[in-house]
Write a structure and sequence with these properties.
Elements: E1 2-5, E2 14-23, E3 28-37, E4 54-60, E5 77-78, E6 81-85, E7 95-97, E8 120-127, E9 130-137, E10 143-144, E11 162-172, E12 196-201, E13 214-216, H1 233-239
Antiparallel strand pairs: 1-12, 2-3, 3-9, 4-6, 4-11, 5-10, 6-7, 8-9, 11-12, 11-13
Length: 243
């Protein structure tokens, strides 16, 4: 993974590995992300969880090169979107968003994806300095901001096709942050300080306007896919949830 901003002192400060798979039988993209982080910081930024320790996932199902902020903001049919997975107690649901949400009087916490387990199922667990995120997601393209799932188009994953997708990990640590100060205490979105120090990503650029890595879907007969019943069993036991 590449450091898009900031960096890590060493593997004890931050270490990331991940597994991505797809499941034709239920048309899902599945992933497990393991992070070793010596300091877990959450709920310091009530309206900006991405400035805490956090995992972000960007999707561009038709691989057209778009990002969650690339299409005109008044366009109801959006081609790309983002999920946030966080240990935050304030945001226990999956956060999904796109830059057009505000044009339709919605925000990430009120958008239909955040209220449904029909399209994405996610879990996470923390043991000491080890953090695990896991999700299984159906994709849409286009995504209807105003009409919700009934007005959106299911994206059917097929063998030997390519989608755009990127997974990023945001790292927050006490002390100096990515802005070179000790936190913007008292600001609207960061009343407890801005501790975000680094973002590491599968991509080589920020995903807001697109440019996601290509993910080539290859069927592997007899091989377990991430998030399936026989893989990551220990994690599922810890989460105590069937994803």
């Amino acid at each position: 993974m590449s450091a898009l901003t900031g960096g890590a002192d060493d593997a004890d400060d931050l270490f990331i590995d991940l597994v991505i798979g797809w499941q034709p039988s239920n048309n899902t993209i599945n992933a497990m992300i393991h992070v070793h982080d010596d300091a877990l910081i959450v709920d310091k930024n009530p309206t900006c969880t991405f400035r805490d320790d956090n995992c972000e996932v960007h999707f561009d199902p038709d691989n057209g090169g778009g990002g969650p902020y690339s299409a005109p903001s008044d366009l109801d049919q959006q081609p790309a979107y983002q999920m946030c997975l966080s240990f935050s107690e304030q945001f226990p649901r999956v956060q999904m968003y796109n830059g057009a949400l505000s044009e339709f009087g919605q925000d990430a916490l009120d958008f239909w994806w955040t209220h449904s387990g029909d399209f994405v199922t996610a879990g996470h667990v923390n043991t000491g300095s080890e953090y695990y995120y896991e999700f299984s997601a159906n994709l849409f393209d286009p995504l209807s901001i105003g009409g919700g799932p009934d007005a959106s188009t299911d994206w059917i994953l097929t063998a030997e096709s390519t989608i755009g997708m990127s997974i990023s990990v945001d790292d927050a640590d006490p002390g100096i942050n990515a802005n070179g100060d000790e936190g913007s205490v008292g600001s609207d979105c960061c009343p407890d300080g801005f501790f975000w120090q680094a973002q590491f990503s599968m991509a080589d650029q920020f995903m807001n306007t697109g440019g996601m890595p290509d993910i080539f879907l290859t069927p592997l007969d007899g091989t377990d896919t991430a998030v399936e019943a026989t893989s990551w069993g220990q994690l599922k036991t810890m989460v105590q949830s069937d994803l």
